[in-house]
Every structure is written in structure tokens, then in C-alpha cells.
């Protein structure tokens, strides 16, 4: 390293660094060499800005590298990138381009054309990766990781992980890897799919699929398409299924409907579980109307009586606490009543194979 000892100012000034206006350093000033050639660095008693056309106007703010970056919030920092702006106190931008942070204690990392615009007391946001993201003015502690055009509008601790054009509105709501989906209920999760929506209440869930809705408290749609789960209900899959009534469920199938509590449809098409604790296992165009009624399959059946069951086709129940079916085929009946319990059936060879029962 060359020493300036015994070197006159006239001989050494080209290698010196000074303020570009030759004035004492009071505010923020760009530096130059001794010949007046501007250097890509500006300083103040509390600020350092390195790069081309950069600005660090906030107290204790810094810009390290990049082009057209502006760090105006106190104790803010921009490290590289282009056309980034850190206006909030303790804000940080690392790389990327055309990003802006207005609120405090927030960060952006390697993203493009994104913004954190909270101007009130909310802060502690993070956007990492992706592009065209927004964390809005009515939320706090929001996080967006990757994807494109994702938006956290309101609430605390909202999170979007990947995907495109997703939106959260409520506290602790999350969207993961979906597209065009919206989480509008608190503590809810959308874990994939397209055009899915949770709204009303809290603790709702959509696992995937397309155009599904989870409505109200503790509701869930696991997958499928065009399914709707109301409060405290579950639709596991299928298409165009609708579950309403607390603790009811539809496991699959198409165009099935549950409208009463504690009822369920396992599969099939265009089946209805209307009575409380009623169920339809499968088939098509079946309707379980009576309380505790069950239809095991078939088609065009109607279980109108309480505690009735149907197994067959085109049957309407006429008696409560009874199984209704079209035909019964029984094999291996005992030929004697010996040892059989009350109510058991047997056939009597001595009476022409007449079927009898034990009283």
C-alpha cells in the first residue's frame, strides 16, 4: 500500500476521495475522486449508499449496490437490485426489482414488482420470491413466499405459499400452492386447487380440487369440484355435492345432498339424506327422509319411516323399524328348530318345507 508520507497535496490529490461539492460532510453527499469524478457512493454522518443513482435519506439507512434504489426509512437497508424503495423504519430489501416497502420491520427478498403498503401500526411482513405480490393496508405479520400476483388484504398472520392470484382476508388464514383461490375465514387453509374459497366463521379447510366452497365454522372439502360444505360438515370428494347440517358428511359421488344433522352419504348420484341421523350408502335417486333411516343402494328408493331401511329398487317404506326389500333369497336354513333362539327362522320338511320361526 502506497504511503502519502512526504507526498505533497498537489501530487496526490487525484487519488484522494472527497465530497463532490468540496464542502464539509453535514448531510448526505456523493463522493468523488480528487479530480471531481463522481463515485457510486454517497455518505452522511449516519448513512452509506453504494450504487448508481441510489439514495439513503433515512437516518442510519444504507444502500449497498444496485441501481435506482431508495432507502428513506430510518435504519432501513437495501442490498442490490433495481428500483427498490424502503420507506419504513427497519425495513429491508434484498435484490429484486421495482419493490416498495412502506411499513416498518418488514422485508422483501428477491421478488419483483411487489409492495407492502401498510401505513398504520401493522408491520413485520415478509415477501420472498415471485412477483406482483401485495400485502395491504389492513393486515399485520403477513407472509408471501413465491408464486405470482398473491395478495394479503387484511387480518393478522395471513400466509400465501406459492400459487397464483390467491387472496387471504382473515387472521391466520393460509393458501398453499393454489390458484385464483380466496381464504375469507379465520384460521382456515386452502391447500391447493383452482378457484376454491373459504368464507364465514373459522377453522375451515379445502384440500384441493376446483370451485369448492367451505362455508362457516369447522367445515371442510377434501377435494373434487363444485362441492359445498356448510358449518361443521365435510365433503371428501366427488362433484356438485352439498352438505348442510351439523356433523353431516358426503364421502363422494355426484350431486348428492345432506340437509340434516349427523347424516351422511357414502357415494352414488343424486341421493338425499334429509332425516336426522339418516344415511344413503350408494345408488342413485334415493332419499332417506325418516330419522335414523338408511338406504343401502339401488335406485328410486324412499325411506320415509323412522328407523327404516331399504335394500332394493323403487321402494317406499311403509313401516318404522323394518327392512324393506324387493325379494329375499335365503340358503342353508336349518331343518329343525332345535337349539335356535327366539326369532330364528327354519324350514319344516314334514310340513312341505314351510318356513317357520321360533316364537
Describe the structure in your own words.
- The protein has 359 residues and is mostly beta strands.
- It folds into four domains: 18-100, no CATH class; 102-240, Insect antifreeze protein (UDP N-Acetylglucosamine Acyltransferase, domain 1, 3 Solenoid), CATH 2.160.10.20; 252-328, Alkaline Protease, subunit P, domain 1, CATH 2.150.10.10; 329-359, no CATH class.
- 1% of the residues lie in helices and 35% in strands.
- The protein has a 22-stranded mixed sheet, with no helix packed on it. A 16-stranded parallel sheet has the order 6-8-10-12-14-16-18-20-22-24-26-28-30-32-34-36, with no helix packed on it. Strands 39-40 form a two-stranded antiparallel ribbon.
- A hairpin with a 5-residue loop joins strand 39 (345-348) and strand 40.
- The longest helix has 4 residues, at 9-12.
- The N and C termini lie far apart (116 Å).
- The mean pLDDT is 90.
CATH topology of the largest domain: UDP N-Acetylglucosamine Acyltransferase, domain 1
Count all strands and give the number: 40
What is the count of helical runs?
A: 1
User: Beta-strand percentage?
Assistant: 25-35%
CATH class of the largest domain equals Mainly Beta
Class by alpha and beta content: mainly beta
Give the CATH superfamily of the largest domain.
Insect antifreeze protein
Shape, principal axes of CA atoms: rod-shaped
CATH architecture of the largest domain: 3 Solenoid
Mean pLDDT, all residues = 90
Rg to the nearest angstrom?
A: 36 Å
**Unreliable stretches:** none
Taken together, the total number of domains comes to 4
Amino acid at each position: 500500500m502506497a504511503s502519502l508520507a512526504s507526498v505533497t497535496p498537489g501530487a496526490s490529490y487525484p487519488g484522494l476521495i472527497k465530497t463532490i461539492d468540496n464542502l464539509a460532510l453535514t448531510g448526505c453527499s456523493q463522493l468523488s475522486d480528487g479530480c471531481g469524478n463522481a463515485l457510486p457512493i454517497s455518505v452522511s454522518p449516519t448513512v452509506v449508499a453504494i450504487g448508481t443513482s441510489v439514495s439513503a435519506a433515512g437516518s442510519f439507512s444504507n444502500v449497498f449496490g444496485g441501481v435506482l434504489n431508495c432507502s428513506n426509512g430510518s435504519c432501513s437497508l437495501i442490498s442490490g437490485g433495481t428500483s427498490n424503495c424502503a420507506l419504513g423504519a427497519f425495513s429491508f430489501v434484498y435484490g429484486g426489482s421495482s419493490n416498495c416497502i412502506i411499513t416498518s420491520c418488514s422485508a422483501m427478498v428477491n421478488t419483483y414488482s411487489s409492495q407492502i403498503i401498510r401505513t398504520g401500526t401493522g408491520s413485520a411482513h415478509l415477501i420472498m420470491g415471485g412477483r406482483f405480490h401485495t400485502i395491504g393496508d389492513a393486515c399485520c405479520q403477513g407472509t408471501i413466499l413465491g408464486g405470482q400476483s398473491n395478495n394479503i388484504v387484511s387480518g393478522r398472520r395471513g400466509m400465501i405459499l406459492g400459487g397464483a392470484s390467491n387472496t387471504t382476508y382473515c387472521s391466520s388464514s393460509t393458501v398453499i400452492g393454489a390458484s385464483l383461490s380466496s381464504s375469507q375465514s379465520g384460521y382456515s387453509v386452502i391447500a391447493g386447487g383452482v378457484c376454491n374459497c373459504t368464507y364465514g366463521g373459522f377453522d375451515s379447510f379445502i384440500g384441493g380440487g376446483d370451485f369448492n366452497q367451505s362455508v362457516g365454522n369447522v367445515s371442510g372439502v377434501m377435494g373434487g369440484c363444485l362441492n359445498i360444505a356448510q358449518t361443521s360438515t365435510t365433503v371428501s370428494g366427488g362433484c356438485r355435492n352439498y352438505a348442510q347440517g351439523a356433523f353431516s358428511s358426503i364421502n363422494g359421488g355426484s350431486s348428492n345432498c345432506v340437509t340434516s344433522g349427523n347424516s351422511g352419504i357414502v357415494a352414488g348420484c343424486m341421493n338425499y339424506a334429509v332425516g336426522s341421523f339418516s344415511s344413503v350408502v350408494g345408488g342413485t335417486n334415493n332419499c332417506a327422509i325418516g330419522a335414523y333411516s338408511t338406504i343401502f343402494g339401488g335406485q328410486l328408493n324412499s325411506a320415509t319411516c323412522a328407523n327404516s331401511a331399504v335394500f332394493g329398487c323403487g321402494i317406499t317404506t311403509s313401516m318404522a323399524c323394518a327392512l324393506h326389500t324387493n325379494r329375499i333369497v335365503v340358503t342353508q336354513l336349518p331343518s329343525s328348530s332345535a337349539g335356535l333362539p327366539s326369532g330364528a327362522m327354519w324350514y319344516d320338511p314334514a310340513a312341505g318345507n314351510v318356513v317357520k320361526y321360533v316364537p
